[in-house]
Each structure stands twice: as structure tokens, then as C-alpha cells.
Design brief:
67 residues, mainly alpha, two-stranded antiparallel ribbon
Length: 67
């Protein structure tokens, strides 16, 4: 299966039997990102977290008595 990175537009070939290939075929909302772009984003995110100014906003959990 030929896939295109959404960030750098590099075209790569992946095996049709991989889980990511199945996700891309069955769910068009899923996008492919090459390993170089994935690693670059991971490094920059970890550097932002290390500064101490990075905040991850999560949904506030409500106490539901029905569960």
C-alpha cells in the first residue's frame, strides 16, 4: 500500500497486512505520518514538557453515581 505523509508529503510503501494499513483503508479520518516526522514531533513535544510550562488540558471528570 502506498501512503503519503501528511506533513512532508513523502510517499512510502507499507505492507498491506499492517494494522496502520487496515486503519487507513477502513477509516478515512486516520492519517499517515512518516517515522521521521513522528520522531521530530516527539522530540519537540518532550522538549516542551521538560520546560515545565507545558500544560495538558484534560476533561474534568464528573462524579457519576449511575456507574
Amino acid at each position: 500500500m502506498r501512503v503519503k505523509c501528511v506533513i512532508c508529503d513523502k510517499v512510502e510503501s507499507i505492507d498491506d497486512e499492517l494494522l496502520i494499513a487496515k486503519r487507513l483503508r477502513n477509516r478515512p479520518i486516520h492519517t499517515y505520518m512518516c517515522q521521521a516526522c513522528y520522531n521530530r514531533i516527539e522530540e519537540k513535544t518532550n522538549a516542551r514538557i521538560a520546560t515545565g510550562k507545558f500544560r495538558l488540558y484534560e476533561d474534568k471528570k464528573t462524579d457519576d453515581s449511575w456507574i
